[in-house]
Amino acid sequence: MHVTIIGAGLGGLVLARVLHVRGIPATVHEAEPSPAARTQGGMLDIHEHDGQWAIEAAGLTDEFRGLILEGREAARVLDGDGTVLFDDPAEGTAGRPEVQRGDLRRILLDSLPDGTVHWGHKVSGVRAVGEGRHEVTFADGTTVTTNLLVGADGAWSRVRPLLSSATPAYAGISFVETFLFDADTRHPATAKAVGAGSMFVPAPGKAITAHREAGGNLHTYVQLVRPQEWFAAIDFTDPAAATARIAREFAGWAPELTALITDGDTAPVLRPIHALPAGHRWERVPGVTLVGDAGHLMVPNGEGANLAMLDGAELGRALAASPDDVEAALTGYERALFPRSAEAAADDILGRFLDDTAPHGLVGFLNQAGQDH
Ligand SMILES: Cc1cc2nc3c(=O)[nH]c(=O)nc-3n(C[C@H](O)[C@H](O)[C@H](O)COP(=O)(O)OP(=O)(O)OC[C@H]3O[C@@H](n4cnc5c(N)ncnc54)[C@H](O)[C@@H]3O)c2cc1C
C-alpha cells in the first residue's frame, strides 16, 4: 500500500505520520512552496478526546507537551465598555491546552521521513482512470497515478469533486484579523483587558475576540455578521481606510478594546467564513476519501483543526488494521466520520453567541460549563 495525500495541513500530516509509524509509506503533495511559505494561523486549543488522541496515535505526545503555552486556557468575557463579565484564570484545568498552530505543524513535519512532503505541488485536477485508480495533475503539468488518494486539501479541495458536488457557501460572517506585538510593553491597557489567554467581547452581530500568543503578542479576530457585499465595499488594499471602516462598527467601545483594531501592527486581513452543508456526506467511491475541512468545512467553533487531526489518525489506523482490504477500511472510516462531523457542524457556537442575547448568552454558557466541570 502507498497512500497519496493532497495537502500538508494538520489532517494530512497526522495521516502521513500515523501511517509511517505503522510502516505504510505515503507521499504528501502540498501547494505551498516550502514549510515557511506562510505563517500558520494562531493558537489552537487541542482537546483530549480528538486532537490529543490523534497526537497520541501519532506517537508525538512528548513533543506536543513541549509546545503547550502555560496559562493560555484562561478565558474572559467583557462588555463593549470594558466591564469584565466573566473571568476564569483557572480554565487551564479544562484539558484543552493551547499551542501555536505553526509549532504543531512543525513537530508533525519533523516526524516524517525526509522527502515525504513534495512542496510546490499544487493539484490542478484529478480524474478516475478505472479500478479505483486516480490520476492527479499538478499545476506544472506533471501527473501521478495512485491506488489510494486522500484529499486533505482543505476548504477548496480539488479531490472532493470525485466524491461530491457540494461546494462551500458563505456563512454570513467574516473575520478581520489584526495583531498587536509585544503588547505588555506597547499596549499595557489592552494586554490587561485580554488577560492571560482568550478574551471574548460579543455583541449582537459582532465581536472582538483576542488571544494572547507567545511573546505577549495579541492576535485578534474581529467578527462581523454581514453579507459579503458589505465587505466588498471596503478597500482592504488601503489598510488605514479599512481599519477606520471596521473600527466604526465598534464606535463607543472602550479604547483598550478598539485599540486591537486601530493600533494593529499588521494590515487588517479579511477572512470570509465559508462552510459545507452540515451533514455533508458521499457514497463510497473506490480508492479515494477525504479528511478534515475537505470533507466537513464548518463555521469556526473550536473543532475544525481537532477534527482534521482525528480524521487523519482514524484513517491511518483503519488502513493499518485492514491492509488487504482498503475498501473495508475506507467504509469503516467514513461510517464514523459522517455522524461525528455532522454533530460538530450542528454546533453553531458563533451564531448562538452573537445573537440578541450577547454578551450574556456566552457568559451563561461558560458559567454553566464551569459548574458541570
Ligand atoms: C479564522 C479561523 C479560525 C479557526 N480557529 C480554529 C480553532 O481555534 N480551533 C480549531 O480546532 N479550528 C479552528 N479553525 C478551523 C481549522 O483552521 C481547520 O478546520 C483546519 O485547519 C483544517 O485542517 P485541514 O488539514 O483539513 O485543512 P487545512 O489546514 O486547510 O490544510 C489544507 C492544506 O492543503 C493545501 N492545499 C490546498 N489546496 C491544495 C491543492 N490544490 N494542491 C495541494 N495542496 C493544497 C493547503 O495549502 C494546506 O496546507 C479556524 C478556522 C478559521 C478560518
Task: Provide a concise account of the structure shown.
The chain is 35% helix and 24% strand. It has 373 residues and is of the alpha/beta class.
List keywords for this structure.
binds flavin-adenine dinucleotide; 373 residues; FAD/NAD(P)-binding domain; D-Amino Acid Oxidase, Chain A, domain 2; 7-stranded mixed beta sheet; 2 domains; alpha/beta; 14 helices
Describe what this molecule looks like in 3D.
GO terms for molecular function: FAD binding; monooxygenase activity. InterPro entries: FAD-bd, FAD/NAD-bd_sf, TetX_monooxygenase. It comes from Amycolatopsis endophytica. The chain has 2 domains: 206 residues, FAD/NAD(P)-binding domain (3-Layer(bba) Sandwich), CATH 3.50.50; 107 residues, D-Amino Acid Oxidase, Chain A, domain 2 (2-Layer Sandwich), CATH 3.30.9. Helices cover 35% and strands 24% of the residues. The chain contains 14 helices and 17 strands. Strand 9 and strand 10 form a beta hairpin. Helix 2 crosses helix 11 and helix 6 packs across helix 9. The structure holds flavin-adenine dinucleotide.
